[in-house]
Recover the amino acids of this structure.
């Protein structure tokens, strides 16, 4: 039903790359239903003394880059509607992301331009897929803090201001 779908969606927003081949929710998709999500950046939060500080993370010199994802379709039995969903693959954090995502120490799978076609290639061998599920090179990434207004869903977060740099004196190193 709708409530179960919402709960499952919250649990499957991300798929841990190291276990995707074993997890019932992901094992079919990781083998044959891989896709790319084009983004200009993503948000991640750093915990400092129990307070969350948002960062905007990008790939240097890339206006858009790709996150490795998997997709699935399922039938909503209540409405008869065919639903399309996706999950973002995650990897262990590289040193930059480890500093930012300092509790779980994970990051989304960033697929370099040179590997995009390979990631979505049908019939790709599981070992080749696993080789692509690696942390992205931190030297090719950049990140900066943004306003904590994006922490609340009550605030308008889909605005250009959401990615404006904000300095926090308590984070000065």
């Amino acid at each position: 039903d709708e409530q179960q779908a919402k709960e499952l969606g919250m649990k499957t927003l991300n798929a841990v790359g190291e276990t995707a081949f074993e997890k019932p929710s992901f094992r079919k998709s990781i083998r044959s239903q891989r896709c790319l999500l084009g983004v200009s950046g993503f948000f991640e939060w750093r915990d400092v003394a129990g307070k969350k500080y948002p960062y905007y993370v990008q790939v240097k010199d890339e206006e858009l880059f790709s996150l490795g994802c998997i997709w699935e379709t399922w039938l909503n039995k209540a409405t008869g509607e065919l639903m399309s969903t996706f999950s973002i693959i995650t990897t262990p954090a590289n040193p930059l992301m480890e500093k930012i995502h300092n509790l779980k120490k994970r990051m989304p799978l960033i697929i370099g331009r040179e590997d995009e076609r390979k990631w979505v290639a049908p019939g790709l061998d599981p070992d080749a897929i696993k080789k692509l599920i690696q942390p992205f090179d931190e030297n090719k990434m950049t990140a900066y803090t943004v306003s904590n207004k994006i922490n609340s869903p009550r605030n308008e977060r889909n605005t250009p201001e959401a990615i404006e740099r904000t300095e926090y004196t308590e984070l000065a190193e």
Q: What stands out?
A: Helices lie at 2-11, 27-32, 95-100, 116-120, 126-132. Residues 5 and 76 are 8 Å apart (CA to CA).
